[in-house]
Amino acid sequence: MHTLTAEAQSKITPETAVQLLKKGNLRFLEGIRQKREFATQIAETASGQYPFACILGCIDSRVPIRLIFDQGIGDVFGATVAGNIVNEDILGSLEFGCKIAGAKLVVVLGHTSCGAVKGACDKAELGNLTSLLAKINPAIQNVKEPTDPTQRTSQNSSFVDAVALENIKLTVQNIKTYSNVL
Fold first, then answer.
1. Is the model's pTM score more than 0.70?
2. Left (φ > 0), alpha (ψ -120 to 50) or beta: where does 85 sit?
3. How far is it, in rounded angstroms, from Cα 150 to Cα 39?
4. Per-residue confidence (pLDDT) for residue 176, from 0 to 100
5. Any idea of the CA torsion for 156, 117, 174, 86, to the nearest 10 degrees?
6. Residues in the chain, pLDDT under 70
7. What local confidence, expressed as pLDDT, does residue 128 receive?
8. How far apart are CA 64 and CA 68, in angstroms?
9. Measured between alpha carbons, how far is 84 from 77 in angstroms, rounded to an integer?
10. Can you say how many angstroms the Cα of residue 126 is from the centroid of all Cα atoms in its chain?
11. How many angstroms separate the CA atoms of 46 and 165, rounded?
12. Using CA atoms, how far apart are residues 60 and 78, in angstroms rounded to an integer?
């Protein structure tokens, strides 16, 4: 795998970027990672970077962005925050990635069994985490089933996963709403 150059990045479309990520994820799932010379990639990116995508994911250690998409140094920008929510800092990072560094795609990557979503479902409160989890509350409200309050907790994996999916949709909507750059 070659390190991306400005010329190679300029030829990538959003559709191509999606395909590159899908192919990389398939390699990851099949256990067939591309061979990379990380020392070479470090040297080749020392004077500049030309990533093709920005991926906003959860901080969860079980979902390492670059690994699950089988990407090397310089290929993607990865922003992680519990619950893959957006705030000014994340939006600024995505704007930099796309409009300054030339990335062609923004991906919001949620996942099943998300601890942040579980915490929001259970109304957890802990320091600054409380305000972060509050950003997931709209997703909880948008998920209508189950209606039984005792089933709307972290113990109901179907509910948690439905909230995680809704949270992805709301995060995409928030990116579109709050970033006039993207």
1. yes
2. beta
3. 53
4. 97
5. -170
6. 1
7. 94
8. 6
9. 14
10. 24
11. 37
12. 13
CA–centroid distance for 76 within its chain? 11
Q: What is the pLDDT of residue 42?
A: 85
- What DSSP element (H or E) covers 78? strand 76-80
Edge-first strand order for the sheet with 53-57 is: 76-80, 53-57, 105-109
DSSP 3-state of 31 = coil
Cα dist from 49 to 12, 99, 100, 102, whole Å:
14, 13, 11, 9
60-86 residue pLDDT tens: 999 999 999 999 999 999 999 999 999
Residue whose C-alpha is closest to residue 69's, from 33, 39, 99, 37: 33
Question: Dihedrals φ, ψ of 80, to 5°?
Answer: -125, 140
Helix, strand, or coil (residue 107): strand
pLDDT of residue 20: 97
Hey, is 97 helix, strand or coil?
Answer: helix
Say if CB 95 and CB 181 are below 8 A apart: yes
